[in-house]
Design goal:
This protein has 272 residues and is mainly alpha-helical. The protein contains twelve helices and two strands; from the N terminus they run E-E-H-H-H-H-H-H-H-H-H-H-H-H. Strands 1-2 form a two-stranded antiparallel ribbon. The longest helix is centred in the last third of the chain and has 25 residues.
């Protein structure tokens, strides 16, 4: 059977369908299906990042996930494992944010459900550093929060990012700022690339899709090249790291500094 020219790699029998449904029912609590305007990580954003967003229909969460995962298993050999490997750390971070930490029991059950579908990531799951205690929320010092509120933040960082920081979700505020910046660069050049690859193409000094300067002097060329490297570094050294669920909470001061850096990148990009 084919779907849009793509040949099935797995026949979905009644037994396999039942196992996929069991997996979906367990995974469904890890993340939301969608978020408002796609501003936070969700099942849909992960599917879209993997270029299978079309597999997830609109509608109730579990039926949508069952249909989406069934199509992934039917038409992709390696993608089910890759999706799970993205969902787990995102779910751990989301659980911390919602103050519903993912437990070792949940991970052990997930492992059994995956093994039943011949997906073996047991060593990765066993090595997860889980903290099942409710995270202590540390609010930022009022003077630091006021500095952030009164700073000339770009419009895109003035709502959700600021709220997350004010409520003590420092890692999440930095991750969200990076993702918003990444999304705006994608829109600007009409690209589905992500992370370092996106920034490398967008600000490439030899063939820039976004020119920050006329590139007529050595200083202008240096700014373009430096910005390319800094934006690539922001994706690799900040966004990717803060997207993982095993990061210890950063201090308000460090998070403030990181947000200032991302805000500067954003402002230079918008003024291009």
């Amino acid at each position: 059977m084919k779907m849009g020219g793509k040949r099935a790699v797995l026949t979905i029998t009644a037994s396999i369908k039942s196992k996929i449904n069991d997996l979906v029912d367990h995974l469904s609590g890890f993340l939301p299906l969608d978020t408002y305007k796609g501003e936070s990580i969700s099942f849909r954003s992960i599917f879209e990042e993997s270029r299978v967003g079309k597999y997830l229909p609109e509608g109730p969460k579990k039926p949508a996930l069952r249909e989406g995962f069934t199509k992934v298993f039917r038409y992709h050999e390696r993608l089910p494992k890759k999706l799970i490997q993205k969902i787990i750390p995102a779910g751990i971070e989301y659980g911390k944010f919602k103050r519903r930490p993912i437990s070792r029991t949940q991970i052990e059950k997930l492992n059994q459900l995956l093994l039943a579908l011949e997906i073996d990531i047991e060593s990765d799951l066993l090595s997860l550093n889980l903290n099942e205690n409710l995270p202590q929320i540390t609010l930022p010092p009022i003077e630091l929060l006021n500095r952030l509120r009164n700073h000339n933040l770009v419009e895109e960082l003035q709502s959700e990012v600021l709220i997350l920081f004010a409520n003590g979700h420092f890692n999440e505020s930095v991750r969200k700022a990076c993702e918003i910046f990444e999304h705006e660069v994608q829109k600007k050049i009409g690209s589905s690339d992500i992370g370092k690859t996106l920034m490398g193409k967008a600000f490439n000094v030899q063939n820039p899709l976004i020119k920050l300067t006329p590139l007529s002097t050595q200083n202008e060329i240096g700014l373009q090249e430096g910005f390319q490297l800094m934006s690539m570094g922001a994706m690799a050294g900040i966004r990717n790291i803060f997207s993982h669920g095993n990061q210890d909470p950063r201090t308000p001061e460090e998070s403030f500094e990181l947000l200032m850096f991302i805000n500067w990148l954003f402002r230079v990009f918008k003024e291009a």
